Amino acid sequence: MNHYTKDNFRPAQSIGLLLNKARNILVAEMDNALKDLEITSQQMGILLSLSGEIASTPFELSKLLAIDTGLMTRLLDKLENKGLLERSRSLEDRRVVNLTLTKKGKEVAAQLPEIAPGVLNVRLKRFTKQEFNELGRLLNKFLAD
What we know:
Elements: H1 15-34, H2 41-51, H3 58-65, H4 69-81, E1 85-89, E2 97-101, H5 103-124, H6 129-143
Antiparallel strand pairs: 1-2
């Protein structure tokens, strides 16, 4: 089913614009909340993925977080320069780079669950539990291949 046509498409009311605005607002609010830790929301995603052992290589992180490899390299460089993570070559395959959090990186990652929910909850405060669950369901449906 096509929801948009050339006749009814209004860019200012499109789902694409609404999703982009929502993302931009959330990123700005999360970045503001993370400023004392001196990381960004994108860097937070990397730290949480590594600390939760969801991903351990730049490729896995790029795929998981939908970040192109060039930007991922720059983000990892910044985190490494801040002393939050280390890179090492895989012993089995030298082409593979493994990522591990440093002690400082683990300390920063441990603080994130204290910060992120508050930022999200401010945006979700007008949602009922049912609406919250429905939003998650619909976003997952939107993101499905």
